[in-house]
Amino acid sequence: MRIAIVGTATFPCPPIFYGGEVFFHCLSRGFHELGHHVSLYGAPGSLPPDPTCTECRLRYVPGGYGEIGDKEYLAAEWYYSEIINNHDYVLDCAHMHMVAETAGFYFPEHTKKILVVPNGVSTEYPRGGPYHVVAGSKKWRDLMVYGRSQFYGTAYEAQYGGLIRSVAEEDFSGVVYWAVDAEHFYTPGEAPREDYYLWLSRPTPYKGLFTALEVAARAKLKLKVVPGIGMPAHQKEWEASLPLIDQAVKNGAQVEVVMLPQNSQHHVVKRELYRRARALLYPVQAHEPFGLVVAEALSAGTPVIASTLGAMPEIIRQGETGFLCRNVEEMVEATKNVGALNNKLIREDSVERWHYLRAAKDFLKLMQ
Amino acid sequence: MKVLQLSSQVYEVPPGHYGGLEQVIFDLSHCLGAMGHDVYVLCPDGSKGDKFNVLTPVKGGLHSPEAAAYEAAKASMGDYEILHGHGWGGFQYQWKRDHPQARVLQTLHGPVTFHTKPVDKPCFVAASQAHADWLKWELNQDARVVHHGIQLDRYPFCAEKDDYLLFLARVSEEKGPLDFVKLCRAVKMKGILAGPDQGTVSGMGYVKAVMDACSDTNGLVRYMGLVANNEQKVELLQKARCLVSPLRPPYIEIFGLSSIEGMACGTPILATDLGAGRELVVHGKTGAIVRDITLLAEGLKIALECEPEACRQRAEEFSREKMAAEYLALYRQMVQEDLSW
Q1: Does residue A152 sit within a domain?
Q2: Is the Cβ–Cβ distance between B60 and B45 less than 8 Å?
Q3: B38-42 and A131-135: which strand pairing?
Q4: Are residues B191 and B252 in the same domain?
Q5: Total number of domains in chain A
Q6: Which of A108, A180, B197, B259 has the fewest Cβ atoms nearer than 10 Å?
Q7: Same domain flag for A146 and A47
Q8: What domain range includes position B208?
Q9: In terms of domains, do A217 and A149 share one?
Q10: Euclidean distance between the first and final Cα of chain B, in Å?
C-alpha cells in the first residue's frame, strides 16, 4: 500500500529535541519495515523513513520549531491534491487536520481513505469530513465520544474548560495505542541503577511537578527534575515553576535540575536518565490521553509511579511495571515498594508492547 | 560615558533566534557595560541584559515600530553623551535636529540602498571595508569601518566533523539556497540547509521551490528551516565540514556574522566573492572565496583542505571585546574632536 503520513507544522518528524512527532516518524518507519511505501509530510528538519528506499518519500511542509500558526493550511494548499490522489491511505496527524478538513470539499467519496490521528483530546477535530478517527487509548476515545476534555473533573476544569465537542462513536475507526522507538531505550541493556527518581515532562502545571516535588519532600528522595521545553511558552511555564523547587528543597527534598541539550544529543541524554533512575514519577493531574514518556521509561526498564488519571491504567500494569496512586501518601508508599519490581521484566514486557511496529500493525488492521 | 543605543525594534535584544543586528547591539552594549560605561538600549519588549539598561517602550515586530520608540524616548535623549543608531528608519537626522548638542553616529546594518543620501557630514560606521566602499561608490559618502565581533565562547571550537555541508542563511534567492542543493548533488555530499523562511525578499513561493528541491534529494539535503536555538545552531556549525555561502549578484554581503561564527567553531567557509567575504576569510587557509557560483565545486576542494585550528585563529580576531574597544575609541574621538555632523 501507499501510505501518506501528514505530520504537524510545529515540530519535525522526528523532532530534534522536544515533540510528540517522534511517534509519527516511528510509525512511518514501521509501515516501511512492514513492506509498504510511505510518504512523510513533515515540518523542516524531518528525516525520510528510509533514505535508501527510492519508493519512500519525504516532503517538507512549511513550519518550524514552536510555530503552530496557519502554516498547515499553506501546506494543504500546496500538497493537498498530491496527497489525496497518490495514496491508498492517509494518516492525517496534523494539528489542523489539513487533509481531513479539506477532503469534504473536494473528494467526499473518499470515505475510507483518511484516518485522523488527533494529537490530543482537545485538538479540534474535523466535522462532516470523510474521515475516521483513531484514538491513542481507550480513555482518549471515551473522552472524545462523551465530549469531555482532558481537564474534566480535575482541578483544572475551571481554568481550561471541561467540555469539548463530541465525536460520534461511529466516526471512530478504533483505538491504536501510541508507541515509541522502544529499541532505542531497550537496546543498551541494564545499567546500574542510581538512587534518584525522575520527573520528566513539559512544565505545564497539570503535568504534576508540584506533586512529584511533594512526594520527594515527604519521602526525602533525590529527584531529578527534567523539563521538556520546545517553545518560548514552555520556557515561561518553567520559570514560573522554579519557586516550587525552592520550596521543596526547603522541605527536605534533594532536587537536581537537568536541562536536556536542545540538539542531537537530546534523545541520548534522556535515555541515560531513564536507564539509571529508580522510577519515573508521573503524577499527572489531568486525563493524559497517552503519555509517551511513560512508554519510554518502561522500555528502558524503569518502573513508573503515576496517578490513576487518563491512560495511565491502560499503560501501567499495577504492581508489575509500576504503581497507580490516588494521592501523595500512596505515591510515597510506592517509592518504598518500587525496588521490588524487576527492571529486566519491565523491559522485556515493554519492548514489544510499546514498539512502533506493533502500532503500525494495529493501524494496518484498521485499514483492511 | 553615557551612551544610548537605538535598536531596529524588530527583534528583542538579544534575539531569540534570527537577528544579527540585535545580536551585535547586545554584544556591544554588554562589553561597554562590563567596562563600566552607562549604556542604555532602546529596544522592543522582552529584551534583557545584565550589563546595560533596557528601555522598552514598544512591542517589536516586522511592522517596524521605530518611530514610536523614538517618540517615547525623545524627551530624555539630551541626557546622553553619545546617541548610537542601528535602525532602518534614518532617525539620526531627527536626533540631530531635536538635540543639536548630541554626538550622533549611525552603524549601517543593511544594503546601502536602504538609506537616503545624507545632507551633511554624518558619522557613519560601516561593518566592513566592502560596505564602506559601496557607500562611497553609491552615495559618495565616507564611513568609518568597525568590524562586527562575536562572543567567541558561545561558539566553541570542534575539530571532529560529520560529513555534511552547511547552508545557514535566509531562505531567499540572493543567498543561493538552490545553488547549495545543486552543489551537494554535484559533489555527492550530505547537506543541511537551515535558515528562516519569513521576512525574506523572495516570498513563500521560492521557499516551496527550495523545500521541494530538498525533498527530491530524498534525505541527501536536509531542510531545517529556522534553527530554534543557539545550542542547535552551534552543533550544526561545529560538525559541518564546510559552511557554504553561495551568494548571487547583485547581492552584496556587508559583513557575514555566520562566517565568523562558523570559523570560531573550526569550520572553513566557502563563499562567492560578493562583499565582505574576502576580508573575513583567508582564501586557502580558512576557506575559499570563488568568483561566482559556477566555481563552487572547485572552491570546495580548497575549503575542505583547510585546518580547523587556522579557522578558529582567524575568528579570534573578531571578538566582541575588540569591537567594543573600537567603538569606544570612536565615541571618545567624537566627544573630543566634535565629530558628527
Answers
A1: yes
A2: yes
A3: unpaired
A4: yes
A5: 2
A6: A108
A7: yes
A8: 152-315
A9: no
A10: 20
- Residue A287 belongs to a domain: yes
Q: Are strands B190-194 and A37-42 parallel, antiparallel or unpaired?
A: unpaired
Strand partners, B245: B271
Element (H, E) at B185: helix B177-187
Are residues A171 and A189 both part of a single domain? no
Query: Quick one: cell of B203?
Result: 516570498
CA dist A229 and A224 (Å) reads 16
Whether A360 is covered by a domain: the verdict is: no
Does a structural domain hold residue A88? yes
Do B310 and B182 lie in a common domain?
Answer: yes
Containing H/E element for B40? strand B38-42
ipTM of the complex: 0.87
A62 in contact with B, Cβ within 8 Å: yes
Q: Minimal Cα distance from A44: which residue of B?
A: B224
Nearest by CB to B215, from A60, A63, A65: name it: A60
The chain-wide mean pLDDT, for chain A, equals 92
Domain boundary pick from A114, A140, A175: A175
* Number of structural domains chain B divides into: 2
- Residues B80-131 pLDDT 10s: 999 999 988 777 778 878 888 888 889 999 887 655 555 566 688 999 999 9
Among candidate residues A175, A203, A221, the one where a domain is terminated: A175
Both A240 and A133 in one domain: the answer is no
Query: Letter for the amino acid at B144?
Result: R
The verdict on A301 and A259 lying in the same domain is yes
CATH assignment of the domain containing B55: 3.40.50.2000
* Residue range B150-169, pLDDT digits in tens: 999 999 999 999 999 999 99
- Based on the domain organization, do A111 and A208 belong to the same domain? no
What is the tens place of the pLDDT at every residue in A199-256?
999 999 999 999 999 999 999 999 999 999 998 899 999 999 999 999 999 999 999 9
B231 closest CB neighbour out of A44, A56, A261: A261
Interface test with A, best of B222, B227, B234 (most A CBs within 10 A): B222
Cis previous bond, A14, omega within 30: yes
Which residue in A has a C-alpha nearest to residue B215's C-alpha?
A59
Is the CB of B232 inside 8 Å of chain A's CB atoms?
yes
Interface test with B, best of A17, A55, A57, A65 (most B CBs within 10 A): A65
Indicate which CATH number applies to the domain containing A81. Answer: 3.40.50
Do B226 and A62 lie within an 8 Å CB cutoff? no
For residue B234, the chain A residues in CB contact (below 8 A) are 263
Nearest to A58 among B219, B231, B232 (CB): B219
Q: Which residue of B220, B223, B235 is in closest CB contact with A264?
A: B235
Among A52, A56, A58, A229, most B C-beta atoms within 10 A, so best to mutate, is A58
DSSP symbols for B210-246? HHHHHHTTTTSEEEEES---HHHHHHHHHH-SEEEE-
pTM of the full structure: 0.90
